[in-house]
Amino acid sequence: MTRVALVCISPLQHDSRVLRHASLLAHAGYDVRIFAQAPLPDTAPTPVTVMPGPGSDTRVRLGMVLRQAPASVLPLSADALYWCSATRLAARRDLLRFRPDIVIANDWRALPVAHAAKRAFKARIIYDSHEFASEEFSDSLRWRLLARRHVVRIEERYIREADAVMTVSDGIADALAAQYGMTRPAVISNTPAWQKTPFRPTGDRITVLYHGVIVPRRGLETLIESAALWPACFRLLIRGPAQGGFDQHLGALGSGLGERLNIEPAVAPEQVVPTAAQADIGIFLLSNSTTHARFAMPNKIFEYMQAGLMIVSSNLPEIRRLIEANDCGRILNNDTPQAIGACLAELSRDRIDTYKQASIAAAKVHCFELQSKTLLEIVKNVL
User: Which of 64, 254, 256, 377 could bridge 261 with an S-S bond, Cβ 3.0-4.6 Å?
Assistant: First the structure.
């Protein structure tokens, strides 16, 4: 039986993409194992080998300085310093013990680990680029100074060893092809499996949902500031895993909103869509100031669609095309609190319902059942 390893140097609990891919390949008859960090989901679709976690936020920052910063002066240092990590060494050791025929490397951090299996016993590599790595945090001066050159060196060195490359959006596919002079990667969007979501008419209280990681730079502070300008019938719900106590910061920031603001912990991946379906509008804010942002096509957009929500988003090209093609929401003129408030204030319940019904219709097309065919074909072709 063909062995397939999915390597993601990150926590597995809320990585819906890796979990979907692992489940699909296991059901297709492959011997699948995931290599990832805790926390794990309550139930995983395949066996999981747990790697050591990154440690405290301080340790993560220190690791970035010690392992990544030298490449800003000496790019070749990235190859050796990459391995100054207990997580990556453990991943390599355990992966070599598994002896996979195919390794799916999820994001740039997993590429050298996958390459170790290729060098040891000619395993095939599929690189799954979830982000446009060389520009992912380019709005951060610290990241540009300390980390970018390291990331670029690792990706540039090892992407050429991949037998196939796939990514999450057309924009990233085009950018990778141009940057590395390679065949355009396949695109497998972050779509959830289709599930029938009954239409739920908008009631007296209108819920605007953000779900996803609760961290800085996701527009959440702007969203809370905006909520004070919304009509009284609107409320804001923020749901997801919080990092560094940022949820407490948001709670304090929105203390004046009272019951109109709720911040909730994340739910299990299989509950994301059913739980989201209790809201009316799904919102996503991201500054259009970087190349990476312009290519954004995150899980939550398709999850909002699958949950039958109207979608409101920042003006990002990939998302704008999707929303306009399906007429399932609104694109903000800008991401100021005033613009968000004005967008919501002009919505009638009937209009929201029209968008919600359009999302339900679009979800039948934008679902993993259709995307999965591409992944199965990629895996078959690299053997």
Answer: 254
